[in-house]
Every structure is written in C-alpha cells, then in structure tokens.
Queue: 2 jobs
Job 1
Amino acid sequence: MSRIIVMTSGKGGVGKTTCTANLGMALAKAGQRVAVVDADFGLRNLDLLLGLENRIVYTALDVLAGECRLDQALVKDKRQPNLALLPAAQNRSKESIKPEQMKRLIKALTKVYNFILIDSPAGIEMGFRNSIAAAREAIIVTTPEISAVRDADRVIGLLEANDIKAVRLVINRLRPAMVAAEQMMSVKDVQGILSIPLLGVIPDDEQVIVSTNKGEPLVLEENLSQAGIAFINVSQRLQGEKVPLMDLSIKKESFLIRLKRLFGG
Amino acid sequence: MTIPIISDLLEKLFGPADDPHSRDDVKRRLKIVLAHDRLALDPQTLEMMRQEIIAVVSRYVEVDFENLEFSLATDQRVTALTANLPIRRIRPLGKEPDQPIESASEAETIELASKSEIMAMDAENAAAALRQFEQNSQANSSRTPSQKELSDSSEREKGETGTTSEVTDNLIDIDPSRLGDSDEADEELTLDLEGDLADDELVGEPAPQLPDLSVPDMSVSDVARTLAQADESGKA
C-alpha cells in the first residue's frame, strides 16, 4: 500500500517545497521508491530545488491530455534513481486540472512508487483542493510565526473536513536563540496551539539557501548540516522509526561565563 | 559618553535588560484569533448571542455591566465561549427587583444550568438551548432564596415590576445611581459553552505506524545525548 502524503501550509514561503524535496530525497536514500509531485501549476519550483529543471520534457498536463505516457513525463533523478519528479505545467493555471484528474494521476503512480509526496501550492483554493484530492496523509509545514500558524490552523480544519485524518506537523525555520530570548514561539507553543502530532523540527539554516542555489537537496551533502540532519530524522519518523527530536535549545549564559568573557576568558 | 559605556558593561555582565517578551504577545494574539477563526461566527451573531445571554442572566441577577467579559478561548481544537458576569445581587423573581439582599442570605453558589444543558449549547443551537435553559430556570425559580426577607426590606424601590421586557430594557438604560451603590465582593458567574467544533479524533489517534512525538519535552539528558551523537557524526 503506497503512502500518499500532501505537503501543505496555507501560507506561502514557509518551506513546503524545500521540505518536499528534502523528504523525498531522504526517503529515496533510505531505499523507498519515491515520486514527488509538483501540484503548483503555473508556479512550479520543485524542479529547481531538485536541480531537475533542465530535464523536463513533458508535464502532468501532457499525460492527462494523452500526449505522452506517465513514465515519459516522470523525471528520474540521476543522483538517486529511487526518486522521480512529476512536473507541473508552468504555462498554465491551477484551474487547468481537476481533483478527479489528479486522483487518476496519483493512482497510476501508486503502481510503482510506495511514497508519493504531493507539493501543494499556497492558498486554499483550486490548487490546494487538487493537491489534497488523492492524499491520505498530510504534513503541515509551518514556521513559528503568527501568520503561518494561523494559516496552518485553517488548513488543518480543511483537511479534517476532507477526511484526511493523519495530519502531522513540521515546524520549519526555528531559531533557538530567539526562543531562548522569549522572542519566538517554541516548538511546544506551536504544537500546543495547533494540537496535532509533531513530526519534526527544522532549525533555521543558511545552508538551505546554498542548497537551493545549487539545486541539490541538503540531505545529499556528505557533511550534513543541522537542517539536513533534521530532514533525515523526519524521513525516518515517517517510516515509523523512533527518532528523538534534535536538541536545539540554547542555554542562557551564566553570570560567571559572561564575566570571564568580558575579561578575555 | 560615560553612561552608554556603563550600561554596555552592565549588559555584558547581566545580559540584556529584560525587554518585554514578544513570545507571550504572539501566543495571546494567536489564541484569540484562532478561537474566532475556528468558531467561524460573524461578529453580528456573536453580539446577538452576547446580548441574549446578558438578557437572560439579568432576569435573575443584577449583573455588573462595567466589568462583564465575553471571550473566546481555544484549547485542544475545542473552542469555548467564556462569559464572565460579575453579579451585584440576586433579583427576586415575581417580586420587585433591585431590593438589596442581606449578605447572610445570599446564595453561595449559583448554578446556571446542568452540565448536559451547557454541553448542548453549541454555536448552532445556542438559541434553542437558551430557550430550554429559560424554561428550566423558571421551573427552578422557587429556589431563589429569601423572598420573605427581601419583602421585609425597608429600601423598597417602586416602579419596577421585574417582567421580562422591562428588565431587558434596563439593560440598555442602566441607572447609574444603582451601579455604584454595591461594593460588596461580587460573585462571579462563569458560563462555559463548549462545543466540539473540531474533530478531536485526529488529535486522539496519531497514525499507528509513526512514533508519537506529540509530547516534545523529552528529558534533558536524552536531548543532550542526541546532540552529542549528532556532533560526533558531524565531525566524523
């Protein structure tokens, strides 16, 4: 039985696509056969984060129009053969595909792939409805900011209404120093407010930008960054392993340490 | 010149001055906004409900209008309407209202409705529940304490009969002379209307094949060990 998981957030720019690319790659590295589906028609980006933008020939729309077979549209990753991308059309709108058609595409993918990650567009309109149509699980990506958490809460309500019961939370871009200074909501705060099970926490990490510049997901690096480790952890939890949360807490410096530092210690 | 240097020194020694924590602000704002989002009630309906609750409660007790509070709070994806209505005194039913009650004869606890009635009052059938509540309350009106003592009271105000419509009118035209006269410790009547506005099955049962991380506070030593391992693997 394939796992069909939608990655969604409500708000844009919180890291849905980054999470999809890294989780997809991490699962593929672990030996799973993974298809990542870009459901963001008109504003596709998943191809860029995976570095596969130059290899797209056909898109999901061409498959639906009968202009190619599904396997012709799938872009197989050369670094990681277990991973394939089903690209969205860039020159069309989100209304150019219907939930029923999305279901047919995903159903066809389940014959070969055992993990299907659907990268949902921002918002709660047609593109969102397409992306959740076939999903059986959802990963809510949010950041510890008021607007992102509010939108996440709205999306959680919509997923419940659409009978997607397995909804889990990834908190992205946590800044432990700000949490320690009481200037950012903690993991516990956000999870307590949204009241859904926590799947993982990704610390804010400059390496994320470096990896998008290169088109190479963080989890492919040899020396994993903090965010890279966090993504690997999330992928292991998705596969049912028990992995403790990374410790991201920053202890407040004691008076003595500050005194020492002041005198060049 | 010297003052900034000293304050800089102090900051280095004692850490930054305790500036207000925006984390508390954001949590407070988020909880309020989510309570409203989840309830999805428009402000007019909310205001109507507020007026009706005050009207019903005012039929039995005199409410302190200056200090009443209505708020929506949300916990575990369940939204609750909390009405905090400080009570000045009991209004005797069928007798002239606004007679002061001897403090010795004041009711100690005031039960607004039975638990099941409160549960029934979700957002959709608030009106129906309110009607049921009114009927029950009228049936229980014999519980209103010490009508005898009240009728003996010397401070009798004439001209108010305590019928529903007139009492409701009093809500709008509050006599300021009566608002200030009672400084005794006000009892507070809190009315919680909880409704299952969300499907809590979701919270209750995480998918079986996944580790449940919903309780993120693992012990400090666990966390430290994980970090140490991560560090080592990073160096290696």
Note: Strands of chain B lie at 61-63, 69-75, 78-90, 187-195.
Job 2
Amino acid sequence: MRLTPLYLKILLLSLLATITLSSFGQDDLEKALLTAPSPGHQKVTATFKSTKLINGHTNETIYKNELDFKVDHRFGDIAGSQGGIKQFFGLDNSTDIRIGFEYGISDRLSIGLARAKGATNVQQLYEGSIKYRLLEQTTDDYIPVALTLFGSNTIAAVSASEDPASAAAYHSFKDRMNYVSQLIIARKFTEGISFTLTPSYIHRNLTAFRDQNDLFALGAGARAKISKRMAVVVDYFIPFRNSADKAYLEGINGTKFYNPLGVGLEMETGGHIFHLNFTNAAAIEEMQFIPQTTSSWLKGQYRWGFSISRRFSFNKK
Amino acid sequence: MKTIYFILLISFAGLSAKAQSIAVSKNASISFFSSTVVEDIEGKSNTANSALDLKTGNIIFKVMNTSFQFKKKLMQEHFNENYMESNTYPFSEFKGKIIDPVDFNKDGNYTLSVEGTLNIHGVTKTCQSKVNLVIDKGIISAKSVFRIKIADYKIKVPSIVFKNVAESVEVRVSAVYQPKTI
C-alpha cells in the first residue's frame, strides 16, 4: 500500500463517493434493492402448437385435465391417374379419416384413444396411445432439447382376408395388433422456429407376405411461424427397409414405397388448431403411413388433408 | 489510508441509513380478471416484487409475466405466447409515488392516491389509482384495484376470440411489506 500512487487513492475516493451519491438516487436504489426475480431454469413452452405436425407427432402433450378432440382427414390424389377434375382433385375420395381424443393425466403424461378408417386393406383401426414428456427444454439451455416418448397400439377390426399373402389374413386376435414406439427429440430454436427428430420403431404382428414385421424409421419435422397465429409446418419420414424384401414386394405387384412428406399451414385461434396440408401419405396412423406409403409426390399422388383440434379444460380450481 | 477507511465507513453508514427507510415485499400478489358473457379469465401471480420508500412514498412493483397462473393451462400458454409475448417482454412494472402525505410510523388505515407509470407489453402509460394502506405495528399492507384497457398496451385480441377476452381488465394488487434490514 505504501507504493500506492496518489492518483489511485483519489480514484478510489471518488469511486466511493459516487457509490454513496448514487445510493441517494430514489428509483435507482429501489431498483437495486429489488433483486430481479431470477428466472432459474424456466421451461420452454409451446415448442409446437399441436400434438402433431402433419403426419408425425411433436413433443407436445395435453395439459392436466384437458381433453383434445382431433379430426384428421386425407382426400384422394389431387393429380396423377387417380386424380384430376373427374375426381374433383381428390375430393370425391377419402383415403383415411381419423377421430381421436387425447387426455392429460398430468402435465407430462397424456393418453389417447382413436378410431381411423385405415388406408390400406388393414382397416377399421382402433388406436390406444400414451405420450410422456421425459425432458423439457429450458430457456437457459440447461436442457437444450425436449424429449418425449410416444407409444401406440393399433388393432385392426377388419374381417380377415381369404388371401394368405394379405396383410389382413388374420388367424388370431394377436395378428391384428400393431405397435409404434417413438422418441421425439424437439428443440425450439427461436420464438418462431422449432424442429423435431423422431427415431421410430414399428412392429406389426402380421404383414403382407415378405413385408417386414419390424421396421425402424427416422422422422424429421419443423414449424416456422409466419404470423402470430399462423405457421408453416413440414414433416418427413425415412423408413429403413430391408432391400431384399423391398425388391420382392416391388417386383410382385409393382407397388413402390415412397417416403412420406407433408407440408401444411397451421392456424391457431385460441383453443382451436386447424391444419391444411398436402401429403403423399394416404394413411394417418403411424403404423400405416410410415411403412405403407405407396404414393408419390412426383406422380401427382399427393392429397389435400386437414385436421381440426379443439381443446377442452376440466380444471375447476 | 486512514482517509480511505473513513470514507468507506461514511459511505456504508450512508447506505444502511438509506436502506432502512425502504420496505420490501417479495411475494406481492397481482391478479387480473377479464369477464365477458362467454368466458371469465383470471390470472394470478404471488411472486411479484415491490419496494416502498418510506421517506418519499416512491413505490415500485415488478412481476414476471410467466409467473401468472391460470385455471386453464392452455390459457396460460396463450397469455404468454400471443398476448403478453413474455419472451420479448418478460416483466410488467409499475413505478410511481403515493402522492398524499402519510406517516408510515403511525398505525392506521389510510386511503391514498398513487400515480405513476405502468409498463406492460413494452408500452408505458401513466396510471392513477387509490391505494388502501393498513399500518399495524410497523407492518405495512397495501391493496389496490384498478382497471386497464388492454388495447392501450397494444395487446391485440383476434376477432375470433373477441367475445372471450374483455376490452378492459380489472387488476388487483396486494402486498405486505417487511422493513428492509441489511
């Protein structure tokens, strides 16, 4: 300290004087006393607005004691050999229709029940599902991504086919069961842009001859807001097929498999969410659109689709 | 060096003397009600912060918008995402002054005028209200009720839910102050 030059002393003194002075400034002091409420690890909310993008799931679940009612519809091909003006651009046909309910057991866990028509010869589908938020993204990136688990069991109620090579050639009730497990990895990058990545595993107890009972797939999706209540949504799935089985199936009846791609417009009006979309997938259920999409965007085999969801709350606090 | 210690002492003495004239509330409650024929909406936060300068009557309230709780969780999501835009405007704040003279050292029940500026959704507006103060053995409790027009704060309600959200909402504020000690 003996070596401290005089000017340093003066500096220190004036600094202290400033502190003392400023402490008498009214608002500044009050502000300083109000330790700003520390947000801590705050959860990111509304990564997506709906539990589904177009075909695939998002990381969102239904809040506790809330019920989501959702109707999905897919029309026939807009163009191509099955489309055009004669079929009124697909509006004369509906490839799949799904009516579903989802209910929040807790803010993290929801269960669902749905009935879908089914787009292939595996029809009259009843789906039970469970969705659980394993991890939630935080605003400070303490947890950078959200993880949600989805599992479903779909039972086909259609009468058994006589054709032994058919996917509906059921011998027992067990044959009618189909399972889907997904891990949905999601991140909200900005207020308006969110992404998902969805590793999926599908098991079908009975398939068409030489189709795969077990199939892995990877899904990806995104949502970009274009206004406060409107967003563009897109999703895509890549099934990892066994090439020998794929070649056999394609050779025997000329059906080719395509990766389902959907693009759409999402509108939210506080309680209602509307989706208007185009997709080459004819089916809505995961166990069907991931392994069984045989229509191609490039052949004009894409269709109008829409979904309407309405949220009801049973909270009486 | 002695001079420095002296100044240091003086400045801290100055600080603490000042600090004791400030009363703080860390769990003030702020709630608002929107009532229409179609729907009643209520949001409530119990974690608002407030400070009151006992010498000047200056008063501040600050609340984190995401701390408002709703009966319907989806409403809470909409409140933060679409109306308050809490990501951009995380706090709502009132800065003002109790304009009627009052002796905070004297127990009693007072109704006083308070005026200042209210900052919500990035918009600052002047605001005036009555505040009810109860001073009991040095503990100060404050309560105030006022109405604000949400359009004043550039909070837009889409026409489709126009019937669900009221044009003006009633705001209720209450705080119990602890004298600040260092």
Note: The CA atoms of residues 141 and 176 of chain B lie 4 Å apart.
